[in-house]
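Task: encode each sequence below as structure tokens.

Item 1
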Amino acid sequence: MSQLEPNIVQLVWFIVLWSVCCLGFLQLAGMYPLESRATNIPASLVIVSTALWIALLLSACFYAAAELRWSSIVIVGGLLFLFIPEPFQAIPERWRNSSAGLVVTGIILAATLAAFSVFTSNPVTSLLKSIA
């Protein structure tokens, strides 16, 4: 395995980050345009979740570019993006299209960013720590 990707721990972190990014994208995609979202979901909640998602997306991309081979990024990222919609469909509709579900998504995005900044050491982590 080390001939394919020598940084296994970093690859596992990328898998976690990219999986959360893909799940967040699928949920947030249903909230835009803001006029088409469900009436019980405040626009501010959608915007805050989107900001967290963008931060996680940029962190995942910068982390992958700094730590992994490009072939690993393309293969693993593509496979995850291809197969993540299936587990997303298993999430109950009331969680996917409600403000409670969006709050949970925001908490998961924030927790993933926090875990990423605590448990990894790279330039992205130092950037995130300087922002916080």
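Item 2
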Amino acid sequence: MAGAEDEPQGSDEQEPNPRARLMHEVAEQMDAIDADYPDGFTIGRVVTVVEVFGANESVDVRVRAAQLPWVSLGLLDWAKKSMEAVNGPGAPDAE
């Protein structure tokens, strides 16, 4: 998974443009997909989840999905279970 490591919160001095940061994350995900599916693929449904830090120290989580809410919730539930299986207790590299 692209970006699986925990990065420092807040502003990123190396990439101060939030749009560039988000585009970089998407590009890393596409690179990982390209590597995992060298014989070709199509992209299905997409859900984005972004943590946003406001100028007044507010924190927000933005979710965007272009499908019916119950489909989005199913995708998010599957993603949560997938991450728990990879990163949870008993997983390789788990402490």
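Check on item 2: DSSP finds two helices and two strands in the chain. The beta strands are 47-53, 59-65.
End of task.
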